[in-house]
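Q: Structure tokens for this one, please.
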Amino acid sequence: MAAIVFDFDGTLGDSLHGILVTAHEVLRRMDWPTVDDAALTATIGLPLHENFTKGAGMPDELASRAEQLYRDIFDTVGAPEIQLFPGVRETLETLAARGIPMAIASSRGQHSLTMLVKMLGIDRFIPADRCFGLQTVARPKPAPDLVYVILGKLGVKPEETLVVGDTVYDIEMGRNAGCHTCAVTYGNQSADTLAGAFPDYIIDDLRKLL
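A: Here is the predicted structure, written as tokens:
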């Protein structure tokens, strides 16, 4: 592969606890009924607005308020809970040493994505100008638009690019863009669920990319 495109949440960053803590705090502040963790987890990988419409059952107007509140409090409530998955740092370091350009395609907001990449110290492998969040394109995952932007940025072809992610939305995005795909099973969706999206590869440890 001439380039690799990573998802962030559930692929590079172990962010589930931070996401859930923030989402539950939003629901508490908005006096919304408690929602099961599984319902919220099932929507990770989609735009944040849909975490509240589909995950918490909110109407659109309330979900928009919840989305803004989430963004307002995430840096102090959720971000401190996030860390890299085992093997991520060494994998990125090795790939960078091999001269393979890498980028991130995320459903996370741009500010949050850039902040977390810097906080976790992986910006020296994937600099800020190769981190693409939700605001980059009009159509979110599983549309291929984010990948198209990255292909243009890196100057590579779809057939020589690998898209790596932990949800079916990542795999479908990569396939829709004509790229090779690799699902990781240690994130937010099970191996059986991921297999239904027909990734080219399935791994249980990011180090297996090497």
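A few notes: The mean pLDDT is 96. The longest strand covers residues 161-165.
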